[in-house]
Amino acid sequence: MTKFSLALSLSLLASIAYGGDTARDTGATSLESATLVVYRSDADLRSRRLSFDVRLDQQNIGRVRRDNTLVVEFAPGSYILDTSLPGEDPITLDLQPGATYYVETGLRVRGDQLEITLQEVGEQVARTRADLPAGQI
User: Fold this and answer.
1) Contact 131, 69 (CB under 8 A)
2) Other beta carbons within 10 Å of 123
3) How far apart are CA 64 and CA 71, in angstroms?
4) CA 77 vs CA 27, 89, 136: distances in Å
5) pTM across the whole model
6) Are strands 69-74 and 52-56 parallel, antiparallel or unpaired?
7) What's CA 115's distance to the chain center, in Å?
8) How does strand 100-110 pair with strand 34-40?
9) Consecutive H or E run containing 70
10) pLDDT tens digits, one per residue of 69-121
11) pLDDT tens sequence across 18-74
């Protein structure tokens, strides 16, 4: 098996393990990159089928659905995180090398209005609310 097909196989396995979405390669090695984990915590049945794009500095990094988690690596730096849905103010993340950041998103339907929330949370909160297994992220 060539190095390329091995890398592709590992990438596909990681994509399946994390719910299907992968992101752009920033060229940073894992020691100098920061990891961003984005997940949904809403339980509203009316928003269950909705999905949305997550953007970092206006570039799409993946799509978040109800039961998946988006895991991406980026070079350290300051980034603005927002979504394709209107309503929530973007949040600024200051990514440090070797660190992992967790962002919880939620959708709520009120009448004919859709509300989205973005909030940076700690690892323990993310593992509890998103059912992230220990050691996997």
Assistant:
1) no
2) 14
3) 10
4) 14, 20, 24
5) 0.70
6) unpaired
7) 18
8) parallel
9) strand 69-74
10) 899 999 999 999 999 888 778 999 999 999 999 998 888 888 888 888 888 99
11) 344 434 444 445 568 999 999 888 767 777 778 889 999 999 999 988 778 899 999
